[in-house]
Amino acid sequence: MADNQGYVELIDHPGLVEALDGLSGFAMIWLIFVFDRNEHWKSKVNPPENPTGKKIGVFATRSPHRPNPVGISAVVLDRIDGNKIYIRNFDLLDGTPILDIKPYLPAADAFAGIRAGWRDELPECGAALVFAGDTRQKLDFIREHGALDLGQFLHTQLATRTLNPKRQRLKLAAEPDGEHEIACRTWRIGFILSGGTATVVRISSGYTPEELATDLDPYQDKAVHRKFISSF
């Protein structure tokens, strides 16, 4: 899961703005876009969630290195303001051309328990999650105050993936049983790995006191951080 904010800007045409009517009620949308910075394609690739290292045919992956460089991405829809669609958790580069926008329909777009090809053959990875002390309470506080669902973030990053500092905002401790840290936007989570279990031991703000004292708030979440710090 990506962790970012941005917007899609429609070209200046009144008909396109009218075409957005009704879209704001959806929690997520599909973006169909062009991998405009890829000059070559590959018949086989090694996707990131493939610990075996075995190359897979590009049509069996979401790789950007495609004969026709068209991609799809399900993103969180925050709000719509005129010809701008504000989104979160996307995996597109700045300036990526958008071909189309479609609403995400849970009944039509999500099918649990169906076959997933080569991904079903991958060895089990990730760790069992355990929450120590008041970490679960802190996660609930952050979610309920409109910030992020860090519990879902941790499930995705720690329970379903092999840890990879190059692909995750992850700091691994030097000592074997030390506290590792993973970042989700402006939040920091400390955890300890032991015997296939990831024990979450710390949920903390990524802001310094000096940063919280300023009015600059690009993520629009400093109020939540201040409440969090005063509550715990």
Characterization of this structure:
The protein is of the alpha+beta class. It has two domains: 5-116, YaeB-like (Elongation Factor Tu (Ef-tu), domain 3, Beta Barrel); 128-231, 2-Layer Sandwich (YaeB-like fold). The chain contains six helices and twelve strands. It has helices at residues 14-18, 106-109, 135-144, 150-159, 209-212, 222-231; strands at residues 5-9, 28-34, 44-45, 56-57, 70-81, 84-88, 98-103, 128-131, 170-171, 180-184, 187-194, 197-205. The protein has a five-stranded antiparallel β-sheet, with no helix packed on it. It starts with a strand and ends with a helix. The mean pLDDT is 85.
Give the beta-strand count.
Answer: 12
- In CATH terms, the superfamily of the largest domain is YaeB-like
Shape: globular
Q: If you compute it from the alpha carbons, what radius of gyration comes out, rounded to the nearest whole angstrom?
A: 20 Å
Helix content: 10-25%
| Main sheet properties | 5 strands, antiparallel
Main attributes of the structure:
Elongation Factor Tu (Ef-tu), domain 3; 232 residues; 6 helices; 19% helix; 2 domains; 12 strands; alpha+beta; YaeB-like fold
